[in-house]
Specification:
Length: 144
């Protein structure tokens, strides 16, 4: 009984740490768009770290001649519509409680990080029946 309580406390603490770390990263990326960072997994323990984005056009020097002046007068192309992967996760998935504001493309990697960090399978917190991961029927998910 005491061992099970310790596991639950450790799991909740770890989830809280991961979520607070994620929130800090999203806040930093939002404050400074040029220094935005993406999350990648590192090591076998599923720890998160910052990885720099690809170099920007301004950071790369080119030996090619400059574009003609006429090209400067053209309008830039209209931006492509946002895909589901770029939208906030709460607009794409059901019943998002703790990871609001995160890009939808990062949901599964973050969930895999949680699974790895806790040493459990997805069905520890979620109902794995017919893909109903969004349901809150499991006590472990309600505790987290």
């Amino acid at each position: 009984m005491m061992k099970e309580n310790f596991k639950r406390i450790a799991a909740v603490t770890l989830i809280a740490l991961v979520l607070s770390f994620q929130a800090e990263l999203w806040a930093e990326a939002g404050e400074n768009a040029e220094a935005s960072a993406s999350l990648v997994s590192s090591g076998s323990f599923g720890l998160l770290r910052l990885a720099p984005e690809m170099p920007t056009a301004s950071s790369i020097t080119s030996s090619s001649p400059p574009a003609p002046v006429e090209a400067l007068n053209e309008l830039p192309p209209e931006p492509a519509p946002q895909s589901n992967q770029e939208q906030p996760v709460e607009q794409v998935q059901k019943n998002i409680q703790a990871l609001k504001g995160m890009p939808a493309a990062q949901l599964l990697p973050v969930m895999h990080q949680m699974r790895t960090a806790l040493g459990v399978r997805c069905d520890y917190c979620h109902i794995a029946e017919n893909g109903k991961y969004w349901m809150d029927d499991k006590p472990a998910k309600q505790i987290a």
